[in-house]
Specification:
Strand order of the largest sheet of chain A: 1-2-3
Shape of chain A: elongated
Strand content of chain A: 5-15%
Structural class of chain B: mainly alpha
Distance between the termini of chain A: 89 Å
Radius of gyration of chain A: 29 Å
Structural class of chain A: mainly alpha
CATH class of one domain in chain A: Mainly Alpha
Number of helices of chain A: 14
Number of strands of chain A: 3
Number of helices of chain B: 8
Distance between the termini of chain B: 55 Å
Strand content of chain B: under 5%
CATH superfamily of one domain in chain B: Arfaptin homology (AH) domain/BAR domain
CATH superfamily of one domain in chain A: Arfaptin homology (AH) domain/BAR domain
Low-confidence stretches of chain B: 1-28
Low-confidence stretches of chain A: 1-127
Order of helices and strands of chain B: EEEHHHHHHHH
Oligomer: heterodimer
CATH class of one domain in chain B: Mainly Alpha
Mean pLDDT of chain B: 83
Helix content of chain B: over 70%
Largest sheet of chain A: 3 strands, antiparallel
Radius of gyration of chain B: 28 Å
Amino acid sequence: MADTARDAPPEQTDFHELEDGEELFPEPATTQESQPASLAAEDISTNSNGPKQDSLFDDDPEDLFAEATEEVSLDSPERDVLLSDGPSPAITPITPPTSVITPRIGHTHDDMFTHSSFDEIEEEEGGDSFDIHISVSDPEKVGDGMNAYMAYKVTTKTSMSLFKRSEFAVKRRFSDFLGLHSKLASKYLHIGYIVPPAPEKSIVGMTKVKVGKEDQSSNEFVEKRRSALERYLMRTVKHPILLKDPDVLQFLESSELPRAVSTQALSSAGLLRMVNKAADAVNKMTIKMNESDAWFEEKQQHFENLDVQLRKLHTSVESLVCHRKELSVNTAQFAKSAAMLGNSEDHTALSRALSQLAEVEEKIDQLHQDQANADFYLFSELLGDYVRLLTAVKGVFDHRMKTWQKWQDSQMLLQKKREAEAKLQFTNKPDKLQQAKDEIKEEIEELEGKVQQGERDFEQISKTIRKEVSRFEKERVKDFKTIIIKYLESLVQTQQQLIKYWEAFLPEAKAIS
Amino acid sequence: MMQEGLDDGPDFLSEEDRGSTLPNFKQNEFSVVRQHEEFIWLHDSFVENEEYAGYIIPPAPPRPDFDASREKLQKLGEGEGSMTKEEFTKMKQELEAEYLAIFKKTVAMHEVFLCRVAAHPVLRKDLNFHVFLEYNQDLSVRGKNKKEKLEDFFKNVVKSADGVLVAGVKDVDDFFEHEKTFLLEYHNRVKDASAKSDRMIRSHKNAADDINRIASSLYTLGTQDSTDLCKFFLKVSELFEKTRKIEARIAADEDLKLADLLKYYLRESQAAKDLLYRRSRALVDYENANKALDKARAKNRDVLQAETSQQLCCHKFEKISESAKQELIDFKTRRVAAFRKNLVELAELELKHAKGNLQLLQGCLGILKGNT
């Protein structure tokens, strides 16, 4: 397979070891071993410019997903930009759309990051307007006891030619979503794309569901999760690149999906992830980058500030949700108490008015409950989503630093080798001299290539990040405006109802004589 | 007519009586300064006066309770470092407003007490009451010392034990029997309603505080943002600033019109219960005096003494019964009137605030939608 290990120094041996009998692949990597042709037929849709699904051997330079069964020059700028660079080792079979890219790893990088590829993708977007709507619904408990899980129905409605049908549905479980995110993150994060994070795991929440507690809190948990999964998918498909990723398409369309076991928190893959994260954190602290471009520093600072403020706002909104729920409960209790008081009041008209008051308060408590839900599902979750998204954004900036570091490391190594070469001139062992000289020349050549590649990688990721940040900010503005307006509308509705209720009560109060 | 003396001693209240129509006053207009303890002294003097056994003694005003506010002030001081200057100033202002509101409420409740006394045909003539209003020196009312407090405690214990005893005895008089049943149940339910309304209002205040913090955060976000969102956030922040003031007002009005009403009738119904208790005690005394008289006649010893005693008890009991009946009827009238007034005002205020809120929300939405 041509998949390369992410960030690995260009030594193919690493990757191949991973491939063979690696216990991190608990299930046979069926899709990886099958012929590229068969892969394409089932899983890959061509770009949006028309029904090219059958033309696997399409020569169209704009075709993102051209099957590489033909010899395509690896230096052509129209190579698949995104798909062959490094799946994470810890994931169930990723669907690599181009299975026959020859493993000259250093050079494939070259192709992926040329300018034209990205530009072409954006042009293609114009061809098919963005029209896709995904809903996650009908949570259903499957199985019993600790092995039980919730299955969600994922329905896609679309007019885009990217898909085989205009409306279709599949059943997915939570780990499937995590698996999808895992694959996307491994493919796109390190080259600068902001991949939306998946909803968080919750051991407590899930255990309640497994154990079969059919109470309000476990129902709320399921609803919260369902809503989060829906928002996650919509965010993912709104990204023009991710939408076309074969893993995304497979997730939405195919009825059977291989289980993503390595997303379990305590699996060996999970542990590997934790170790990698720790290593990353240490590295981040030690990288001191010479920032030549003020834009990046500025943007990083901006996102840092935004993160702090959003977290603060999120905390306040969560507190509001909590207090509003309390208000609802307390209002209900007061309503009951007022009803009792009305019963014991021996003046008839007053007694009736008190009962009416109790009724009004009961309706109002339901109003508070509804408002608390709007507070949560609209406002609070929006903020929570963006706090998580900002983590992905920061991650992308970090990857850029790493890419820079890699480039610098290659450069330093090259420098050392050159010095070593120079030293060789002064050796007085002539017989070994020629051999050593040749060796070093070879190494220097290789390193020169690496340095060039490193510089290209760095430039490409910088370019990608600029575009991504611009897209992200546009989305952010749109999201916040849309959702906050919806939230304000919910507040309007509440006030209108309140007016109705009190207007009905006022004459009752006046009628006390 | 009351004026607050706003210093750090919340027990300091001054009171001014303008153009009094009450007879027996030496001047027409005068003002004195009274502390909470002196109100309590006046109330207790009524309770202990046998002459007033047949009246519902207006309940004493509650002790001013600034504990919650003091706690908040302390927390504010401790948390000063963790918030922005604007936030701190804002919270401080609110706390001061809250303090002032509680102060005003306390003053009002003391005033209500005095007005109730002044309105009562018999109590208004009380000498202590006149002294309270006129004597422009400190009344030197010392708080009860330990011994007296202990005596009070035992008196209450005895009263409740007796209360149980008396409650068990079915009254011959239908009117009083009905009142007894009614008051016992009513008092408990008012107590419950009062507690629940307090909890409800506290949640409301908490929510208003949250909206305040949300408004501040949105403001900061608005000043920091470089995109279109900056104006958006600032507008929404402004909106929430205004709506949370309304929410705080709603909580305050509910407190005034609903919670205070219930608290007041909790105290009044207790005072009415106390009256019934005193009447029952008088009845028991009367019945005991009858028995004693029969015994004396049978033994033919101390008959005159027993007769006098029996006549006194009879007279006392009848006097109490007569005034108690009127008092309880008045109590009902007052209660119905107070509930009517407060419930109407509550509904009107709720409507006013909801309409205000709605207007603000719709106005803001119009602007926001117009700009997107």
